[in-house]
Write a structure and sequence with these properties.
This protein has 130 residues and is mainly α. Helices cover 55% and strands 12% of the residues.
Length: 130
């Protein structure tokens, strides 16, 4: 599959995409690293707004296809926050894995029900033919 905005990490089995976004380029709200340019301010404001809109559009598109999206901000990778970030991502991945396992069990159950229905129909048809 071709992904919009090229996720940094794709865990296809669990249908999870991880984006590591730079606070400056992606306009991380209320972040000290998302500073505003002093020159050509209108250009940069428009650029950052377009980046945020594009990100949101891409995440929404992926989610509409059944993918789970995790965004890790650059500031969350700083030394004083990395442990919390790892714990948060791990928690999200564990939840995604559990969801995936539930989906697989549901698919398996539906497949078994379908196979049982096909068998019942074959038996019924064979009885009618006799």
């Amino acid at each position: 599959m071709k992904f919009p905005d090229s996720p940094d990490i794709v865990l296809a089995k669990y249908r999870t995409c991880i984006f590591v976004s730079g606070c400056f380029w992606h306009g991380h709200k209320d972040c000290q690293y998302a500073t505003r340019a002093k020159t050509n301010a209108d250009f940069w404001r428009t650029k950052f707004e377009n980046n945020r809109e594009s990100d949101l559009r891409d995440y929404t598109f992926l989610e509409s296809l059944g993918w789970r999206v995790i965004v890790v901000w650059e500031c969350e990778l700083k030394k004083d926050r990395i442990d919390d970030t790892i714990a948060s991502v791990r928690k999200q991945l564990d939840a995604n894995r559990e969801s995936w396992l539930t989906e697989q069990a549901d698919r398996r159950r539906r497949r078994e029900e379908w196979q049982a229905e096909i068998s019942r129909r074959k038996i019924r048809v064979s009885e009618l033919i006799r």
